Amino acid sequence: MTVTVSPRLDLAATGFPILQPHHGVIASTTYIPATPGNTLWGRLPCEADSPCAVVQPGSAITVDTISHEGVLEDQRRNPREFFSRYGVSGGHVLDDARQVADSGMPHDFDNDGPHLVTGPIAVAGARPGDLLAVTVLGLTPRVPYGMVSARHGFGALPGEMPSLPGPVFTFATAHSARQGAWGRMAVDPADSSRGSLRFPLRPFLGVMGVAVPGGERPHSVPPGRHGGNIDVSLLGEGATLFLPVQVDDALVYFGDPHFAQGDGEVALTAFEASLRATVKLEVVPGGAAVRPGHGRVAPFAGRTTTSCRSAWTRT
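^ that's the sequence the OP posted. Answer follows.
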């Protein structure tokens, strides 16, 4: 991997503060930080996992999520070193990302998924046959930067990518002003005269799901009836995802935060960057029976009719 060392970024000028654990606005009374003890890496919760929190149906909770970019083994599992190459100082790297990278948390780069997920969180009284309704109330950037990465042989168009000796990482920044929020990527980091690409930010969580039955954690990449790595960009603020509960208390979790994504992940990833999410968790008793499939319903989603105030536009 070859990168061009950038000058120190003026991150304060982006309009987004750094949201370290327990700092900044926390929109609900129940807050779940992404500490190593609250996090799984590359695998999703199963019935045998103990919850890191228990909440009542109808609760709104705030959950910190961490992007895997900068933490993975092909980035030397050292987010401070990795992001310093792009002009990000150590104090602007999230403490919880560094703690996960420094921990003894097991992760098999070749056989596990890349995703970091926060949870599981028990929703008291939820039972198999119910639906868990997860309404996204707010998504706030925790940092004003992230990555779009391409690892050769993966993504939607691997045959169109040049033959490269290793992964290609593209650094992107997020900006907020009165007219909205946007992302920016350099066309060529080695040639400032070539300008940059600018695109709108539409944050969402790529991973939202419930635990599977049994004692084996599923791989974090394939989605399923449990939800998981759905990667649907429409599941941003104002969306409600309905998940068929599969184990007692549902054991819900969140991760794979994105600042923006098009109609897919052609390069392999979206604009990957950490988010603070506030969601409402509601239980629809017996709800799976009202959908086709007699309890074998897959996840489905809708949108609320009232607009949510976006954390992506400064007022």
